[in-house]
Amino acid sequence: MVMAGGMIKRLVTSTILGCGIFVGGGLASLHSATAQTAGSEVPPPEPAILFSADEVDYNQELQTVTARGNVEISREGRILLADTVSYDRSQDVLTASGNVSITEPTGEVTFASYVELSGDFKEGIVQDIYVLLDENTRIAGAGARRSGGNFTEIAKAVYSPCKVCEDNGSSSTPLWRIRAARVLHDSDSKTVEYEDARLEVAGIPVLYTPYFQHPDPTVKRQSGLLAPSFGSTSHVGSYFSQPYYWSIDNSKDMTFTPTYTTDEGPVLATEYRQRLDSGEFDVVNSITRDTEDDWQGHIDAKGRFDIDPTWRWGFDAEQASEKTYLSRYGFGSPSVLTSNLFTEGFRGASYTRADAYYFQGLKSDDDRDTTPIVLPHLQFHGQSAPAKYGSITTLDLDGLSLTRDEGTNSHRMSAKAGWELPHVGTMGDVTKLSLSVRSDNYLVSDVSRTNRENYSGYTGRLLPLAAIDWQMPFVSSQGSYQQVITPIAMAAWSPNGGNPDEIPNEDSQSFELDDINLFSHDRFGGLDRAEDGLRASYGLEWGIYGPQGGYTSAMFGQSYRANENDTFAQGSGLDEHLSDYVGRVTVAPNQYLDLTYRYRLSKDDFSARRNQVTATVGSLDTLRLNTTYLHFTDEAGSEEFDEREEIYFRAERQFNQYWSGQAYGRYDLDETDPLEYGIGFVYEDECFIFDGRVRRTFYRDQDLGESDEFLFRLVFKTLGEFASAAGL
User: Fold this and answer.
1) Averaged pLDDT score across all residues of the chain
2) What is residue 39's predicted lDDT score, i.e. its pLDDT?
3) Residue 655 backbone dihedrals phi, psi, to 5 degrees
4) Is there a contact between 438 and 531 (Cβ–Cβ < 8 Å)?
5) Are the C-beta atoms of 41 and 64 separated by less than 8 Å?
6) How far apart are CA 548 and CA 551, in angstroms?
7) What is the pLDDT of residue 518?
8) What is the largest CA-CA distance in the chain?
9) How far apart are CA 521 and CA 494, in angstroms?
């Protein structure tokens, strides 16, 4: 008798019937040891069986090994744990009982009260089986048969990813589960099949099917039917959608979604996705034949591809057959669709890009004949490394060709060379001197001019610019708080008359003075318009910062222009010598409050011309409120709206671990009318999601009127999703 980490009885250490047993420190190894004749080819050794136990009993006559107490056996990556294990070498059968568990190389764990398996663990029977899959999904049954190392056939089975809690010593019913007469789990194909299955919710049967199959939780993508959706809207009537997902291979897939509608006929939507070594692309489209027997559809595609470490190219393609098609069939409600083909390159501090654009406006007054096509738009920006005294030289090139079927055509070539010299003074003041010259050259046709006939031909301008920026921060410490006060000033000069009538305005049509562009040298966003004359801006920034990251800051400023001309539109805030006052206040002392107020006040009487407030207050545990308030007057210079006062709010609350709710609304305060509002509730746990929402809209979109919608989503995790929408 040999002692080795426990008691080993009747241990024989010599080769016995081709099986050697070596024991040390409580660990034994069973392996093939059959003698070979001289010169014969030695076959590959059989995989070793490693095991440890508190006590091992070997019976030479019966060729059995019995292990008791904390038994652990490992073979080919599979690990078996049990209270008692017996191995019959003559039959190559292993039996285990008492707290049995088998861990597969894939991570799947099988629990049982008794198992009888082949020596390689690939064949056998199991009693009282309990299988733990990925994402804590479980399959339990009265018994099971294992074959091929990958098939597990379970009788009288229950499948569920839901947790089962112990309540007063008894197990509660899971939120949902599937009961079946037979369940087959194939770990190779990663599928779970059911026969005579019924879905139970809170223990109540709600659905029966003679056969059902789904991927096991380890599968992230596999071909098959997705969850259907159905509902009713005033735009298409009642509808039913049944998506099908096709996993083509590891790099590409496709989803087909046929939809039947009672008022507009069937719709087929598809989405194709593919990843390449150099990039990826995604194509979504749909097609239908409406009640007027016209073909309708849309496309929404996007691709991004690397050419080399410097260059890449891409595309966006967005088109719809009619202006309200996307809104009618639930594909979104944008105001414009933009198609773009581009290439761009990054090298050091330089950037190069070439674009082509095609636009489709979806507003009622948009006309395809007057919508421009941009082909091409070329851009280059280059910047030198800091030279003497930190000076930087820049070069910007821009070429644009814009054409229409009806209206102005414009072909532009611009070049701008610049030089900047920053300087930090001995008192901490920061000054930057900027010098540049810009040349804009145009070849245009049918440019509309005030009180003159349209112009066609060459035009251009040469714009030198000199500017200086200055700021001086003052910092003080008050205990653990830091306070910063920074006066800021900017002065710039360009020759007057920089915007002749012969130059069309295509890219600088919308402008409004605010705290963001107050200190810009040229406050137009594009190149077709340029700020000219002598101008200057001044302002003051203040902030106080706490030790935990909270802060409060404010900014106030105004601009001055020496010439009072029509460079900026009336109401823009810059149409007179002195501009309106602009500023910003932000209060964010902690995680429960984040408030920003942006304003523009009249220079004459400080009356508000534009107010914008965004605020987040509270927390999800109590109540979190997100609010945006916007107000601008007729004098604010908006080109899209007249005077308007609008508020949007969104309230959210996490009621408990599983339930949350939200409500939102948008109101036109000037007309005292709601624009839209809605409410929703969400339940989510480890195995189930319920998402229900009610929405009401009051605005009209051309031939689409007001609507009421009810939407809900049921997600049985690891199975799929069930969704529905209803509206009037």
Assistant:
1) 84
2) 47
3) -70, -40
4) no
5) no
6) 9
7) 93
8) 118
9) 10
Closest CA to 610 of 640, 581, 577: 581
Q: Quick one: which of 534, 546, 525, 557 has its CA closest to 467? A: 534
Say what the alpha-carbon torsion angle 45, 46, 50, 51 is, to the nearest 10 degrees.
Answer: -140
Neighbouring-strand partners of residue 58: 65
How far is CA 648 from its chain centroid?
24
| Through-space distance between the first and last CA atoms of the chain, rounded to whole angstroms | 86
Closest CA to 613 of 601, 627, 600, 597: 597
In Å, what is the CA distance from 556 to each residue of 521, 531, 537, 602?
18, 22, 11, 13
For the stretch 473-497, pLDDT in tens is 999 998 889 999 999 999 999 999 8
DSSP string, 672-691: TEEEEEEEEEEEE-SSEEEE
Of 106, 251, 109, nearest in space to 190 by CA = 106
| 3-state SS class at 135 | helix
Query: Residue 543: phi, psi to the nearest 5?
Result: -155, 145
Please tell me the distance from the alpha carbon of residue 657 to that of residue 679, in angstroms, as a whole number.
Answer: 20
Q: Which residues of 325-342 are buried (b: 16+ CB within 10 A; e: fewer)?
A: bbbbbbbeeeeebebbbb
User: Using an 8 Å Cβ cutoff, are 668 and 676 in contact?
Assistant: no
* Of 6, 57, 58, residue with least CA distance to 27: 6
Question: What tokens appear for 653 in the block?
Answer: 């609350």
Q: Which residue pairs from 417-421 have beta carbons closer than 8 angstroms and sit at least 24 positions apart in sequence?
A: 417/393, 418/393, 418/394, 419/391, 419/392, 419/393, 419/394, 420/391, 420/392, 420/394, 421/389, 421/390, 421/391, 421/392
Residues 381-410: pLDDT tens digits?
999 988 888 899 999 999 999 999 999 999
Query: Looking at the predicted structure, is the pLDDT value of residue 8 above 50?
Result: no
Q: Is the pLDDT of residue 728 over 50?
A: no
Structure tokens at 339: 């198609």
Return the pLDDT at 726.
Answer: 39
Q: Per-residue confidence at 533, pLDDT binned at 50, 70, 90?
A: very high
Residues 503 and 528 sit within 8 Å (Cβ to Cβ): yes
Please state, in angstroms and rounded to a whole number, the distance separating the CA atoms of residues 137 and 159.
8
User: Which helix H or strand E contains 326, and what residues bound it?
Assistant: helix 325-328
